[in-house]
Design a protein that fits this description.
Elements lengths: L2 H11 L11 E5 L2 E4 L4 E4 L2 H4 L8 H11 L12 H12 L5 E5 L2 H20 L5 E5 L8 H6 L3 H4 L9 E4 L4 H7 L4 E6 L2 E2 L5 E2 L2 H14 L2 E5 L23 E4 L10 E5 L1 H4 L15 H16 L2 H22 L3 E7 L2 E6 L4 H9 L2 E2 L1 E3 L3 E4 L7 H16 L3
Parallel strand pairs: 3-15, 5-6, 5-7, 7-10, 10-11
Antiparallel strand pairs: 1-2, 2-3, 4-12, 8-9, 11-12, 13-14, 14-17, 16-17
């Protein structure tokens, strides 16, 4: 089916909830994807930080094929080995002692919100239920997670919102301290605000926040839906900060392309959820867990993390150099292979120009170009990104 015909059918049958690029992607290999007409694109979006091993990684494909021949779904009424093995791998390589599986980042954050409230209710009573989140954050599109999201544009038209959320500026410890009340149960934040314009949390801020939560007996929830699974050069972004959360959420890169989410917690906090208090029909199904196990093995046993750290540093330096060369680049910032370039001009035309040059990139907050390539990206491919950006942005000075 030609792309134009496909677009017409999409307009006819799909709800108009996305602004899509005018191409239809039909296959991918490594860091490249191909459209219906056979054109090749270098992928710096990776399914929005999902395809951490790139497209068609042989270990991931083999795991999916093998599991699909045995069992796709059984429900959580029974034990399945892939789910238990994945939980073990996550616990063994993180702060956590327990894992709850679901299907997406929004569901993982829903689980974290429910867990924090139930834990606080059990320890302090129902008067302790509020969660402090950050302005410009993004935690999902369900009613609870869009309420947790500190962006009016995400919440508009869905009022009344869920009660019990307070918003403060990111990287502002004093604002957090002033927002805490006897009703505060948790503080929830991303270590890098991806949708919020690739804003990176300060080291001192996070360490002070961890101490503040400990002193006040407030739970610290880290949303690592986008930063987890090697995105920042370590398996989890909190490792950069020398702290440990009470609850952490994962999704996106966890399944390498298959939908899966996870809420991880300490033993004490996790005990607040008991049979019947929370559940997911598809959460932790054998196929998704087998895929996630393959992702974990590649990241932990291979050289992907080591290489991605080096390439992430190279990419950060290259973007900073580009900033120094072009007056319409306001800032370059990020962590690992989650990088952003803030412009003084509208970013969407730049995304379109790059698309026409065979390069897939993304724009957030109107003027911030976001780059979240597969972790297998190379320095040569980073050089191509920089050359295309220099040409596209140089013509817009």
């Amino acid at each position: 089916m030609p792309t134009e015909e496909l677009r017409e059918d999409a307009d006819r049958y799909l709800m108009h909830t996305y602004t899509r690029q005018p191409i239809s992607i039909v296959r991918g290999r490594g860091t490249r994807v191909y459209d219906l007409e056979g054109r090749e694109y270098l992928d710096f979006v990776a399914g929005v930080a999902v395809n951490v091993l790139g497209h068609g990684h042989p270990d991931l494909i083999a795991a999916i094929q093998k599991q699909s021949q045995h069992l796709l779904h059984a429900s959580n009424l029974y034990y399945t080995e892939p789910q238990v093995k994945l939980a073990e791998a996550l616990v063994e390589h993180s702060f956590a002692k327990k894992v709850f599986f679901c299907n997406s980042g929004a569901e993982a954050n829903e689980a974290a919100i429910k867990l924090a409230r139930r834990y606080a209710h059990g320890k302090y009573g129902t008067a302790r239920f509020e969660i402090i989140t950050m302005l410009q954050s993004f935690h999902g599109r369900t009613m609870a997670t869009l309420t947790a999201t500190g962006q009016e544009k995400v919440q508009k038209g869905f009022e009344p919102l869920l009660p019990g959320f307070t918003y403060v500026p990111f990287n502002d410890l004093n604002a957090v301290e002033q927002a805490i009340t006897p009703a505060t149960a948790a503080i929830m934040l991303e270590l890098v605000q991806g949708e919020g314009g690739v804003q990176v949390a300060d080291q001192a801020y996070i360490k002070s926040l961890r101490g503040l939560c400990r002193d006040r007996d407030i739970l610290l929830i880290l949303d690592e839906v986008q930063t987890g699974m090697g995105r920042t050069g370590t398996l989890f972004a909190y490792e950069h900060y020398g702290i440990q959360p009470d609850i952490m959420t994962l999704a996106k890169g966890l399944g390498g392309g298959l939908p899966i989410g996870a809420c991880l917690a300490t033993e004490e906090v996790a005990a607040a959820l008991t049979p019947g208090t929370h559940a997911s029909t598809f959460g932790g199904n054998p196929l998704a867990c087998s895929a996630a196990l393959a992702v974990m093995r590649v990241l932990l046993e291979g050289r992907v993390l080591t290489q991605s750290r080096a390439v992430g540093q190279y990419m950060a330096k290259s973007l900073l150099d580009l900033k120094d060369r072009l007056p319409n680049v306001k800032d370059a910032r990020g962590l690992g292979l989650l990088q952003g370039l803030e412009l003084t001009v509208d970013g969407q035309p730049v995304v379109t120009d790059c698309l026409n040059r065979g390069l897939l990139i993304n724009c957030t907050m109107d003027r911030v170009l976001r780059f979240v390539p597969p972790l297998i990206i190379t320095q040569r491919e980073i050089d191509r990104l920089i050359n295309v950006l220099a040409d596209v942005l140089g013509k817009r000075v």
